[in-house]
Amino acid sequence: MDLKEGSSGAPIRERELGFYERFRVSLHDLGYYNNVSIIARYSNATKTLNSWPQSIFRGFSHAVQKHPELSTTVARDADGTLYFQRLPTVDLEQLVTFKQLQDIEGEDVDAKLITLSTAENNRGFENTSTTPSWRAIALRESSNSDSFRVAFVWHHVIGDGRSGLAVHQSLLEAFRLSEDDVDCKSNRPTSVTSLDLRRVPSSANPLFTSMEQMLPNSTAPATVTSPLLGRKWAGNAYNDKSPIVTELGHIRIPASSVQNILTQCRKHSTTMTALLQAIVAKALLEQVGVSYDRIRTAVAVSLRRFFDPKLGIDDSVMGLWISTYTTEFHKTQFHPRTDAVELDVLWQLSQQNTAQINSVVANGGREVEIMGLMGVNDYSAAVKARVGQPRDNSFGLTNLGVFGAASIEEGHGRITLDDMFFSQSCHSNGAAFQICIVTVQGGDMNIVFNWQKGIILGEEIDGVTSGVKDLMGQIASRE
Question: pTM score > 0.70 for this model?
Fold first, then answer.
């Protein structure tokens, strides 16, 4: 890791914000959407724990050097133009805090993670013109544990969900390099010991550009009237009554079940995302009562695959490059006579979802739903004008897929990343609830539900989570 002594000076003006970045700033400042978070567990980490907390600061020093977004703030010109500015140094002591996992409320580890995520997702960012819009909590487990966790929480303006994976990948790289440099006798790093790792220089790497510049020929697809008849359920209407409170629910799917489900997905020529979309739709339609006939889902899709490879944008970097595609489901699509037929219906719908995903990918980014926001002049006014109106989408789904950490090369430390917990704040102006999914290679799948308090009934969301868990269990048990 190449670090130089922190420098002083004024912030450097960078590029203006793109349309979607401006939209995200508006949502945050209105209190409609706070942040995204990923909590990762690092195991076989005895050396890293022995040099605590210096090892954590060193890890984030490495991440700051790699990702310029961690050094930036959002400033505003006199005429209201928003732009990024790069700070000369980053004060990690201001951004990284330390806690004991046992001090967080909860009967077990997963309950504690829900408690922590709920608290963080209900906190926005202050002084975003002078302070980077991210924070982290390093969590030590019991005294005899060789594991610890890091919660990384960030403003959507600096990155999408895959950006969080990129930061944790950078932390893992740094921890492994640091373990190589630890002197076995002193348990202290053998290099860069003279540096103050609590205040580090900002990254010298350039900021990547906005999505509309990456995809200059993209347009929003034409609006299509739903072919499905009946009344759509989308929770209660848009509501911005203060305080806007995020609530979370969670399902953990064991690693063995994840592998069995993936095998079934391959057998039926579909994907985990497509299957989960169908499963959640079925579970929800069983909860909403006879007054409703259909639902509408929005599934997140990364735009990175559509960029010119020469630009160097892959899953290892930070940036906000995401859109959605929508699908509708009707109750009549889920009318089985036996359990076997019930699962057959899910596989058929999952295959239809996969065909839609493939169509989105084959389109090559020429039609991108999020581009429909480009023509809006005042995002705050546009969002507030919708208060009291019905929501467009019943639920949103973001699957970050499988986090595959780089293999441990010869000569590198043994530390591994073996669990992830992905969540975000509620969308006051969005779907009735959101589902956040991430899996670590060879590990468990964590499914987190988030919703705005008062928008969906407790028994409804409990019924959905129970239904999803049951259906995933049925599929996992199949040969």
Answer: yes
